[in-house]
Amino acid sequence: MKKAIFILFSILLLLIAVAGVHIYASKKAEESLKTFLSGVGVENFSYKDVDYSLFKGKTEVEDLLIESKGSKTRIGKLVISRLTDTDLEFSMLGVRGEDEDFKKLEENLKELGYEKVEFNLLFSASLYEDWKELIIRKFSLELPGAFSVELKLKLSGVDKKVIKAFLDLRNSTEAQPAKLAGILSKVYLKELTIKLRDESLLSKLIEKEAEKKNTSPEKIRKELIEKLEESLAKRKTKFEKSLVESLKALVRKGGSLVLEGKPKTPLGADDLIVYTLMGLQTGDFSQLVEKLNLNVRYEPS
Question: What's the pLDDT at 42?
Fold first, then answer.
């Protein structure tokens, strides 16, 4: 009899423990989601389900709908892997907009043969407060099977105060250029990598152009390569020549274009904006390339 009572008592304790863990996990999941969304300025949202894994330390949200500034974005699955005051890592899978601009983009991509137009967004970053450095290990946007764009950054002059000031400014309803300039004046770029990966988009664009001109994709591809070869003779700098050669390889067989910048001395974020705007206005990006110490290379698939 005593043994049966002991077994029943043990089962009761186990059930209470399981219930407690479930309640804690549910509360933790909701807190993580609210903290994450409020940090990026989102107040209106709804979701189908949210779950927190004690073993993995991850929050997973199913069918998340975000409403911000008159637009709606639906996310099939949000996974928050790390969320502290110095570390942030998350992935958004199956992202699609519900506004007219996205619908137009979706129509254009479907004309190229992409039936499922849903994007994935991945982000991973850490703040090293003692050194005032922010390292963005990965910030990528991809349309599976079509293309992806990936950004990596190493910034100095960044601490919690700078990040808070930037987020407050971002979430503000009023434009405050003076405050933005003040924030940017403290931030410096130490390293930059941009990777553009083509899986099939370029080939589909070539096929579409061939269809319009009633010719073959091979002929369109050959014409593009010939135009690039013609422009190669006009290029003067090492960077320009490398860029054209990389583009030729990309047109021939797909793959990736990688831009890497490591300034000899850290480049101020405000100066980076100025050099970029000058390049856009004049069409001459030589100063930006020089200041960034920029290099380009091709990587096969």
Answer: 76
